[in-house]
Specification:
The structure is a single chain. This protein has a single domain (5-238), classed as Rossmann fold, CATH 3.40.50.150. The chain contains ten helices and eight strands. The chain has helices spanning 11-27, 37-51, 55-58, 60-84, 103-110, 124-136, 148-151, 174-181, 191-201, 218-224, and strands spanning 2-5, 94-97, 117-121, 142-145, 159-163, 184-188, 205-215, 228-239. The longest helix is centred in the N-terminal third of the chain and has 25 residues, at 60-84. The protein binds S-adenosylmethionine. S-adenosylmethionine is lined by residues 56, 67, 71, 98-100, 103-104, 120-123, 126, 147-148, 163-165, 168.
C-alpha cells in the first residue's frame, strides 16, 4: 500500500531551523550554507567518483556547505509530518545510516523524536563534522564510525533514518532495503532509489511518500536563497502487522 501526503512545518520548527543555521554561521562559519558551492561540488563529486576517490573524506566540509541546510530542512519536513501522524511512536531509538553531518538526526531531535540516537558514518571527516555540529547545537547523539550495514545488526528495533545513503550503495538490492527497513524507516533519496524501496517492500510494509513543493516562509527564503523547496523524494515505511 502506498499513500501520498501533504507536508507542513510548524512556525516553531521553522524558527528552530533558522536559529540552528544562525548558530552554525556564528560558531562553524566554514560549514555555513553557501549556494555558490552547489554547482562546484556537484562537478567535483562526479570527478571523484570517476577517479574512485573517497569524496567524503577530502570534500566533507564543502559537501556540507552545499547540502547540509537543504537536507536538514527536507528531513525536518518529513519527520515532523510523520511524527504528527503517530509513525515511529513505538521506536526503540533512531539510527542514522551514513549520517554525514547528521541533518536527519538533528531534524528528528528538533521534531521531538526518540531520545536514543546513533549516527553511523564510515568517513572520519564526516563523523568529526557531525560531532562539531551536535556540540554547537547542544544535541546529544552517539556517533559511531564504521560500516552502517554491520552496525545496524545491533539495533534491530530502532527506526532507521536513511538520508542520501542508498545512492552511495551502488549494489543496493532488495535484500539490503528489507534489512535496512526493519520495523520502520524514513528514506530520503533520489527518486530512482525510492522506487527500489517501493519495489522491495510493497507487501511487507505500508509506504507513505511525500511529493510536494513546499513554499518557504520568508525567514527560510532568506536563509536558503530560494522561494520553495521540492520535497518529492521521501518515503516513510512501517511494517504491516503480521
Ligand atoms: C551523500 S552523504 C549523505 C549524508 C547525510 N545523510 C545527508 O543527508 O546529508 C552519504 C554519507 O554516507 C556515508 N557512507 C557511505 N557508505 C557508507 C557505509 N557503508 N557505511 C556508513 N556510512 C557510509 C558517506 O561517508 C557520507 O557521509
Amino acid at each position: 500500500m502506498s499513500t501520498q501526503v501533504e507536508v507542513r512545518i510548524s512556525s516553531g520548527l521553522a524558527q528552530a531551523f533558522v536559529a540552528d543555521l544562525e548558530r552554525i554561521r556564528d560558531r562553524l562559519p566554514e560549514l555555513a550554507y553557501c549556494r555558490a558551492a552547489h554547482e562546484e561540488i556537484k562537478t567535483r563529486l562526479r570527478q571523484s567518483v570517476a577517479l574512485g576517490q573517497d569524496f567524503y573524506e577530502s570534500e566533507a566540509v564543502n559537501f556540507n556547505k552545499a547540502y547540509f541546510a537543504k537536507n536538514y530542512l527536507k528531513a525536518l519536513l518529513a519527520v515532523s509530518y510523520f511524527r504528527c501522524r503517530g509513525l515511529f511512536a513505538d521506536s526503540a531509538g533512531l539510527i542514522d545510516l551514513g549520517a554525514g553531518a547528521g541533518p536527519a538526526t538533528i531534524a528528528a531531535v528538533r521534531a521531538g523524536l526518540s531520545s536514543e540516537r546513533v549516527m553511523i558514518d564510515s568517513s572520519h571527516s564526516q563523523s568529526d563534522i557531525s560531532s562539531q555540529l551536535c556540540t554547537a547545537l547542544s544535541i546529544s547523539s552517539r556517533p559511531i564510525r564504521g560500516d552502517a550495514l554491520q552496525v545496524i545488526q545491533a539495533f534491530p528495533n530502532a527506526t532507521k533514518l536513511v538520508s542520501y545513503w542508498l545512492c552511495e550503495q551502488s549494489s543496493t538490492g532488495a535484500e539490503l532495503i528489507r534489512n535496512v527497513a526493519g520495523r520502520s524507516a524514513l528514506f530520503i533519496d533520489y527518486p530512482r532509489y525510492l522506487d527500489r524501496v517501493r519495489e522491495a517492500l510493497s507487501h511487507s510494509h505500508v509506504i507513505y511518500s511525500i511529493d510536494h513543493r513546499f513554499h518557504l516562509p520568508s525567514a527560510l527564503q532568506r536563509e536558503l536563497n530560494a522561494k520553495s523547496i521540492r520535497v518529492h523524494s521521501v518515503a516513510a515505511v512501517q511494517r504491516n502487522a503480521a
